[in-house]
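Example record for the data management plan.
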Amino acid sequence: MRSSKPGPKPPTLDHSALGGMELETGSGRPSPPIEMNAGLPAHLQDLNDRARSYVEAASSANTRRAYASDWKHFAAWCRRENLSPLPPDPQVVGLYITACASGGALGMRNGKPDSVSTIERRLSAIGWNCTQRGMTLDRKDRAIATVMAGIRNTHAAPPRQKEALLPEDLIAMLETLDRGTLRGLRDRAMLLIGFAGGLRRSEITGLDLGRDQTEDGRGWIEILDKGLLITLRGKTGWREVEIGRGSTDATCPVVAIETWIKFAKLAKGPLFRRVTGKGKNVGPDRLNDQEVARLVKRAALAAGVRGDLSERDREKLFGGHSLRAGLASSVEVDERYVQKQLGHASADMTRKYQRRRDRFRVNLTKAAGL
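Corresponding structural encoding:
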């Protein structure tokens, strides 16, 4: 006689693998990560852990941090307005983005409005967090879509681009660094490789000394006779960046890298690391990509770049992208080579980085006979 007793339930995947971060409850308070389902066989635990690591790799650490911060911002606004962030209500979200655009999301009457790009990121973060809970936020709902369209039409503005650092600016910045310290050698190598390679902040700090040496690495270097070959996992997939040797050792990025590796006594792991012990010791930890932006700002101010402006204005002008824009604006070669170096899918994107290019080199007015 067949038993009527129900069979065991199929194993379910640990949903904490889907988040890559702690989720928050409806009250806005962080909830502990969901524990692995008791019905999951022990032999699948390794697969569960691997799934978690793959999900985390699907987005950058910066994106995950931004999404976590945006969700806290939304949940805090809901608490102040006596509303619930879950389940997702398009009308509530529409009111929230209105508050963000008007500067009232922080509870202050005359607060600073969020930019359109910030509001769009907050919307993405809310949708992402809802998805992790098995819920769906319909961003096409008129309560969201129509309000967002109005916000774009009212507040959209051209993006504020970072100032390009030209070769003479970079050389002046290098002179402000102390070559007699490990920190100075490291910073020198970071500036030169970032400029010559047209690298993003995360690409600079994500480099390893060799292939498959760390879990969080985004690429590695190979030092060759004629230059440096960098293999990167970027936004558009894997790509190679070639950096040739410079005309002098003082400005050669390859020499700067070799010098840093030699005196820092590096053999394996992250290329750029924290310098501790008053600049005398090199730690094992990878440098945070924010340090690149801080370095560029600090060195540009010390070198007096754009000294015609106030210090406050100069701080806003420079950042990690100043190195990429500097390369794109400086080299006098066929545009396709610059596009390849920067890893851009289109020439239009490359032109956006050419801050100081001659915009009127092709004069269609004269070409038309006027």
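Summary line stored alongside the record: The beta strands are 207-208, 219-223, 227-234, 237-244, 273-276, 281-286.
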